Amino acid sequence: MDPALNRGENMKVVLAALNARYTHSSLALRYLKRYCQGQFPNIETVEFNINQSPGMILGELVKRRPDVLGLSCYIWNIGIILPLVGNLRKVLPEATIILGGPEVSFDGEYWLSKYPSIDFLIAGEGEEALRRFLEEYERCAGQLTEESLAAVPGLVYRRQDGQVVQNPNPPLDLASIPPIYAGDLGELKDKIVYFETTRGCPFRCAYCLSSVMGPVRAFPLARAKEELAALAAAGVQQVRFVDRTFNYDPRRALELLEFMISLDTTTRFQLEVGGDILTQPILELLTKAPENRFQFEIGVQSTNPATLDAVGRRSHLQRLAEAVRFLRERTTVIVLLDLIAGLPAEGFWRFGQSFDFVYALQPHRIHLGFLKLLRGSRLRAEAEQFGCVFTHEAPYEVLYTKDLSFEEIQRLKLIEDLVDKYYGPRFEHTLKYLLRDGRSPFQFFNELAAKWEEAGYQWVEHSLLGRFEILHKFFAAGNPDLLPWMLYDFRLYERRQNPPRWMGGSQDRRLEKDWLSSPRLKEVLPEASKLTPRELSRRIVVEELSFGTGTQTVLFYYPREGTKARTVRLA
Question: Which residues does residue 340 pair with via DSSP β-bridges, in sequence order?
Fold first, then answer.
């Protein structure tokens, strides 16, 4: 045999990923290439995104003429990959096509029976499996036998008698995987990069694939620090940890957080954390974190004890609430709280109670997700038991359950959209006013959704001012101070643009001119003494807000372009 062939140099191996967005990069491809390239130095990786033309993706892959083509599959790209594979088979009939990733790691017989263009699957971890597959492919010069296929961990294949076989795939020693973020990382500047320090999860939530991945395994801590430092130095926009519960080991989490705080970088680190297991030392450490350093995603999912019990989720809600309040009040950590609609034993109004619990904690963002019955998850196997009907194609999203009707799910989807449109700093004081006297946030958003749907607004995009105007149109009656609070929220972020006439406010800017020439300005705004009159004129706006209790004059001071104003109430 040619010595070059022994080094894998005569094999053309191409690994491809279809990312969700252009700014994303594929973690899987980096692992696979780095693990295999010692023996197969010419292995190529190519990344696309799901918004690109399938025809152009097909053309690019065909142009590379691979002997072996591997594709990374998820619920959000499988709908594009399957027809792509069918066309690749027509144009490249001799190529060996192998699929891997969470979407095809379960129901191997289904995939290979329904899609004959797929040659092989890898179920589970792919690094050692792909390397062994390429070794056998090379050894057999592409003529793989059942004996050689049986030697590949995690491989799913058809035997000659048509039976689909799946080989066992023992857990990989994570220390054996070489670092994937080293050397020149210039292509990752300003990108969103995925990163992991662990695989597996200590919890067994029935809707999550991590529940079937076994116990947590950790990468070496020193290696994690080296890679994080390299990513930060490369100017990555955001590092998204895929660890299912970053703080499962509080001592390890504390050390990594301390290291990330010490980095001189503008990179933001997004972590999925268990809110109720955030320890006091971790919380105290986070008070020292620079602004925009961390973003925490905390899964609440439900506050219904019956629901949590049905999905095998343990959650100490009081402890979680205390941790979130600490993060909001004493740290600069950006907090996202997640809920899942469609879980067992939770109907529309009981979901509303979960929503109100989360809303009261005032996270920076509330994410309403909808149950997805993932292949391999326990909840998919139990779907009939809780009357769950879901879409046949990915992402296998819930259509209705015995507790939540299809119509109610559609209403929740509209509520989700309206929460994205209105919840947050741009409408902060307006919503506080509308929700005064203990009004349920969920009931308010449900009422807003009903009015929105009746007006047909769900079919049209709306500008920021358009959203203000719609809110005024729907809720002006019985809310006499709605307009001044809208003007207040508008001015907190808008210095250059005058408010629309229907909102009120000053149109001629005479109030600023009066205050710019007033000797009292330096008393109410000490920063004024450090700025020239020209600079001051660019940084302040003064508005008279006509509340029912009287008129208030408010000075809005913008420290920097594009930042939220600091307000000073003037006599």
Answer: 369
Q: SS3 for 6?
A: helix
Does 418 fall in a domain?
A: no
Could you tell me how many residues make up the chain? 571
Angle (CA) 274-390-443 rounded to 5° is: 60
- Phi and psi dihedrals of 36, rounded to 5? -100, -20
Statement to judge: residues 338 and 367 lie in one domain: yes
Tokens matching residue 347: 């109907």
Domain with 443 in it: 423-479
Total number of domains constituting the chain: 4
Q: Which two tokens stand for residue 296?
A: 């925490």
Q: Where does 158-265 have alpha helices with state H?
A: 221-233, 250-262
CA distance 564 to 491: 9
**Residues 459, 528 within the same domain:** no
| DSSP β-bridge partners for residue 24 | 192
Alpha helices in 423-462 (DSSP H): 428-434, 441-455
How would you classify the pairing of strands 96-100 and 155-158? unpaired
Tell me the CB-side half-sphere exposure of residue 109, using CA atoms within 13 A: 4
The 10 Å Cβ neighbour count of residue 244 is 23
Taking a C-beta distance cutoff of 8 angstroms, is the pair 240, 192 a contact? Answer: yes
Instruction: List the beta bridge partners of residue 554.
Output: 543, 569
206 and 347 in a single domain? The answer is yes
Q: Round to the nearest angstrom and report the end-to-end CA distance of the chain.
A: 91
290: its two tokens: 């620079």
Q: Looking at the structure, do residues 319 and 346 belong to the same domain, yes or no?
A: yes
- Distance between CA 336 and CA 424 in Å, rounded? 11
Closest CA to 403 of 446, 351, 346: 346
- Of 458, 479, 500, the domain-final residue: 479
d(CA 394, CA 291): 38
Tokens linked to 416 = 């989700």
Q: To the nearest 5 percent, what fractions of the chain are helix, strand and coil?
A: 45, 20, 40
CA 568/CA 545 separation, integer angstroms:
13
Please list the pLDDT of the chain residue by residue as tens digits (571 residues).
344 444 456 789 999 999 988 888 899 999 999 999 999 999 999 999 999 999 999 999 999 999 999 999 999 999 999 999 999 999 999 999 999 999 999 999 999 999 999 999 999 999 999 999 999 999 999 999 999 999 999 999 999 999 999 999 999 999 999 999 998 999 999 999 999 999 998 888 999 988 677 789 999 999 999 999 999 999 999 999 999 999 999 999 999 999 999 999 999 999 999 999 999 999 999 999 999 999 999 999 999 999 999 999 989 999 999 999 999 999 999 999 999 999 999 999 999 999 999 999 999 999 999 999 999 999 999 999 999 999 999 999 999 999 999 999 999 999 999 999 999 999 999 999 999 999 999 999 999 999 999 999 999 999 999 999 999 999 999 999 999 999 999 999 998 888 999 998 877 788 888 999 898 999 999 988 899 989 998 999 999 999 999 999 999 999 988 889 999 998 7
247: left (phi over 0), alpha (psi -120 to 50) or beta: alpha
